[in-house]
Amino acid sequence: MSQRRIGLVGYGDVSIVHVGAIEAIDGLELVGIADTDPAARERAAAETSLPVHSSVEELIEALRPDAVHVTTPHDQHVDPSLAALERGVHVLQEKPLAHTLAEGERLVEALGSLRAARADGGAGAPKIGICFQNRYNRGSQELARLLAGGELGEMRGAWASVVWTRTAQYYEAKPWRGRWETAGGGLLINQAIHTLDLVQWLLGPVERTEGLVSQRKFAGVTEVEDTADLVLHHASGVTTTFYATLTAPAARPVEFEVETEKASLEVRSGGVGGLTVRWKDGRVDTFSDRVAAPGGRAYWGVSHEELIRDFHASLDDPEPFWIGPGEAMASLRILTDAYRASGVGS
Ligand SMILES: NC(=O)c1ccc[n+]([C@@H]2O[C@H](COP(=O)([O-])OP(=O)(O)OC[C@H]3O[C@@H](n4cnc5c(N)ncnc54)[C@H](O)[C@@H]3O)[C@@H](O)[C@H]2O)c1
After folding, report:
1. What is the pTM of this model?
2. Nearest in space to 301 (alpha carbons), one of 331, 338, 270, 261
3. Which of 137, 231, 300, 331 has its CA 20 to 30 A from that of 117?
């Protein structure tokens, strides 16, 4: 891969993962940071000694990066990403695609227009990838491989659960996280979206979502849901039973279990993760996730860095990155349906 100059847009909690990955991956160089908050800019300058700017536009004008990583709050995803794409700069954007379905559609449509307006028919257009890094977990990858291989027989359906913990301090430290206007929701759009994405990627499109979201613990602290209890109806006719909550005293590993004619498959992520395949003839196969070295970034696992590496390696390919805005619309549609069914959200 040719040498690539990268700008970081948003210097908050998740930026440690992006800065660390850019440092660790050969051929990538972080050249500057943009943040709208003067305190974050001060911290960025002190911690990195790189040039800091107050907007993505200013950063691009001053530094001419090849790509930017957009790591801003949910309602601040589409504008910075579009500003970069319109200036010919590649974008790796954090999940979710956007804080509302309408904003997500705006990005998808603008990207289509940008591609259509090019003389090359879009082949050389700047690319955009969305950080759904759990697709890079070894357990997810092995499950995808087995499902595509056809040896599992008929698909019967799935079960998934995300039982995690959050504190009032998590929301008080960054008030955008607890508000509909800025986050577009709570547990589903911020945390459980990774599992919704995996479910629809591996079992196919979700046509209909039944169930409800609710606030069971953080009333008075946030406006948004902290618990969800859903059944996802896939276009293929099977269903996924889905439970998620942030009300537990400690985080459990995320569970994702797929039932097929020939085997039961259990994916775990968080802690010691991976895939266990229990074949109905008695055989058991296990595939362990790769584990990060202990330290600051260990909490986030290795898959985020894998996705970042793969995105940059793919920039020389003619095809769009495989996890783009179209893919990311799917999880946004599922959670928007759950919000509508529950009478909450925009
Ligand atoms: N993929 C993952 O597993 C993962 C994990 C954590 C967070 N995230 C995502 O990363 C994003 C950021 O989360 P966070 O917890 O780091 O948030 P944060 O609040 O800690 O940081 C966001 C930073 O963006 C800055 N900002 C706001 N608007 C901006 C704009 N228009 N231009 C430039 N800077 C702007 C803020 O001042 C802040 O410093 C969210 O979308 C979140 O969902 C993803």
Report:
1. 0.97
2. 270
3. 331
